[in-house]
Amino acid sequence: MNVVTPEISPSARDRFERMHAVIRTRICLLDYAPGTRLSEEALAAEFGVSRTPLRRVLARLESEGLLQSVHGVGTFVTDVDIAELAQTYQLRFELAELTGRLGAVAPDEALWADFRALSARSKEIVRAPEPKRFAELNMDFFMALQRLTDNEPLKDICEKLYFRTTRIWLKSVFESKIDLADEADIFDREIHDILRALEIGDLHAAAHIQRAHISMSFARMQNGFKTRP
Amino acid sequence: MNVVTPEISPSARDRFERMHAVIRTRICLLDYAPGTRLSEEALAAEFGVSRTPLRRVLARLESEGLLQSVHGVGTFVTDVDIAELAQTYQLRFELAELTGRLGAVAPDEALWADFRALSARSKEIVRAPEPKRFAELNMDFFMALQRLTDNEPLKDICEKLYFRTTRIWLKSVFESKIDLADEADIFDREIHDILRALEIGDLHAAAHIQRAHISMSFARMQNGFKTRP
DNA sequence: GCTCGTGGTGTTGTACACATCATTGTTCGG
DNA sequence: CCGAACAATGATGTGTACAACACCACGAGC
Question: Is rRNA-binding there in the keyword field (chains A, B) (predicted)?
Answer without folding.
Answer: no
